[in-house]
Design brief:
299 residues, alpha+beta, Jelly Rolls, Arc Repressor Mutant, subunit A, 2 domains, five-stranded antiparallel beta sheet, 10 helices, 41% helix, globular, disordered N terminus
Length: 299
């Protein structure tokens, strides 16, 4: 078997306190940040609000969050915030493990919503804190085999996350459907601005359009075309609040040759026009607060 190298470079893995996270103090259009990595965020102590892809969740002590690559987020918290961030790429998690795909908690069929949230009880808090502190120490001290150590500790930490996907569900058909669904969603992430037809994705996956549509509906409850439309809309919303680009620029980036067509699409899907949508977030009090108001510390 070919030897797989662990890569724990800054671009594929980092572990830090929240205030020290790369880009923690950078401001986007409305204070949102976008990560190209998976992010596990544990708020050990503190209160506030965490917004991910425009979905808000209250922050409280011992909250564990999971963000996915491409999601935009904004954390508005008080000065006593204490927490950690661990970010990693798909390649880092899967390297050397023989994993051909991500664990259920980090893949599409396992997502319970826009982002996972786990409230830790006292027993779980002690275990999670021990694991996270070990990860931060290994990352900062770079001892022998440190990348392998980080990889193992990361897998243990991920095991704490719940998943709506039951890996023990019997039946080869379900497992096959699950894999096809995830392959479709991964393709969609990379091609939504270029491909809008279900037939094009079916061709990429070497299956018929009807077969793909049936699988997507069985796994998710929604049609393949619905997922395509929602993915385009999600990216439009992300760009609206995380960049200062004009509607015309965003429309072109999303594959719309005519900005008016994009404007109609956006209003039909959201029941509000693009400018009003952007202004609503601009007028949100949280948009004018820094992402992290005070540097968090290990304690």
């Amino acid at each position: 078997m070919k030897h797989m190298e662990y890569n724990a470079s800054q671009s594929s893995f980092y572990a830090t306190t929240l205030g020290d996270a790369p880009g923690a103090f950078s401001e986007s259009c409305f204070g949102f940040q976008k990560s190209e990595l998976f992010e596990l965020i544990w708020v050990k102590k503190g209160q506030g609000a965490f917004t991910v892809d425009l979905e808000k969740s209250l922050v409280s002590d011992n909250s564990l969050f999971c963000l996915f690559p491409g999601q935009i987020s904004r954390l508005v918290a008080g000065p006593e915030l204490v927490g950690y961030k661990i970010a990693f790429s798909r390649e880092f998690l899967c390297a050397g493990s023989g994993l051909a795909y991500l664990p259920p908690a980090l893949d599409y069929a396992g997502r319970a919503g826009q982002f996972e949230v786990l409230r830790l009880n006292m027993e779980m808090q002690t275990e999670v804190e021990t694991i996270i502190e070990m990860i931060v120490w290994e990352y900062n001290n770079r001892q022998r085999l440190w990348a392998q150590m980080l990889h193992g500790l990361l897998k243990v930490l991920i095991a704490f996350f719940p998943s709506s996907f039951n890996a023990d569900t019997p039946g080869q058909q379900f497992r096959t459907d699950y894999l096809v669904f995830n392959r479709f969603m991964n393709l969609l992430d990379g091609k939504f601005a270029l491909q809008r037809q279900v037939a094009a994705y079916a061709s990429d996956l070497a299956v018929s359009s009807n077969y793909l549509s049936e699988i997507i509906k069985r796994v998710s409850g929604y049609s393949a075309s619905h997922h395509i439309q929602q993915r385009v809309l999600l990216e439009a919303k992300r760009k609206a609040v995380s960049t200062s680009k004009s509607m015309k620029e965003i429309a072109l980036e999303l594959g719309f040759d005519d900005p008016s067509t994009f404007s109609k699409f956006f209003k039909t899907m959201t029941q509000v026009n693009f400018s009003d949508f952007r202004n609503r977030w601009f007028n949100d009090p949280g948009s004018r607060l820094p992402v992290y108001r005070k540097k968090a510390r290990l304690s």
